[in-house]
From TrEMBL:
The keyword Oxidoreductase is assigned to this record: yes
EC number(s) reported in the record: 1.1.1.60
Domain of life: Bacteria
GO molecular function, a single term: 2-hydroxy-3-oxopropionate reductase activity
Every 6-phosphogluconate dehydrogenase NADP-binding domain range: 11-170
Domain 3-hydroxyisobutyrate dehydrogenase-like NAD-binding: 173-291
Keywords: NAD, Oxidoreductase
InterPro entries: 6-PGluconate_DH-like_C_sf, 6PGD_dom2, 6PGDH_NADP-bd, HIBADH-like_NADP-bd, HIBADH-related, NAD(P)-bd_dom_sf, Tartro_sem_red
Organism in which the protein naturally occurs: Streptomyces albidoflavus
Stated name of the protein: 2-hydroxy-3-oxopropionate reductase
UniProt record similarity statement: Belongs to the HIBADH-related family.
Amino acid sequence: MSKTADTARPSIAWIGLGIMGSPMSENLIKAGYAVTGYTLEQEKLDRLTAAGGTAAASIAEAVREADIVITMVPASPQVEAIAYGPDGILAHAKRGALLIDMSSITPQTSIDLAKAAEEKGVRVLDAPVSGGEAGAVEAVLSIMVGGGQADFDEARPVFEALGKTIVLCGPHGSGQTVKAANQLIVAVNIQACAEAVVFLEKSGVDLGAALDVLGGGLAGSTVLARKKDNFLRRDFAPGFRIDLHHKDMGIVTDAARTVGAALPVGSAVAQLVASLRAQGDGGLDHSALLRGVERLSGGQV
């Protein structure tokens, strides 16, 4: 069970209790925040209450008295669905509340949300994260934030209960732009690691030993450290699903086209992610890019 909530801290409503949202909300409870949550799946609400949070029956009930509303849902359409309309956050959050969207969505969606919220007296930060399920559980996420300095300063203690690298990147939408760049780097990195794994195995090298020494040199990366066991064990239980990375690669390629930035390697990896999804692997972890390389190399997977 959690510590008793500190009434001096802002009350928090948390919307979206998935792979990332559940452990993140639980870390806030451990830090002494009163968290009221809402999501569509009853078992996830039960998990929240078991951790010391409060389950709400609707978005309206969750956000009505909250000082801070945090959302963590899959994509722009879900953010729009929970934010707008008569049953949404903006219709029921109190004036002066701070809405922190930690989903990974298009920068324009974040900009539009901030503008709509301002008309309701609600402040907004876009604050997507990197670090995956493990980073969420361990509270070591990287949090990239877009919005105003004063709102960022107010939110910092909350962010510090969730992550280790917390940076205000610029005005509304900037956090999402940086997250898009993050997802570009991660996808290309996983693809390079996957190609190296297949190359090493086909060459008859001890894969575990090879990945250990590669991890200690210039080829080492957080991606390789986090995904090494996935590659070795062919364990693709989702920490971050291919479906979601496919969505993110769409965001970054579209945003890059808008600003006139070429993504020659990123565009190729975006197609490989899309191919893997089309082959039925969308529900697997993004380290399953290894399966795509195996198929291209003549393997039966």
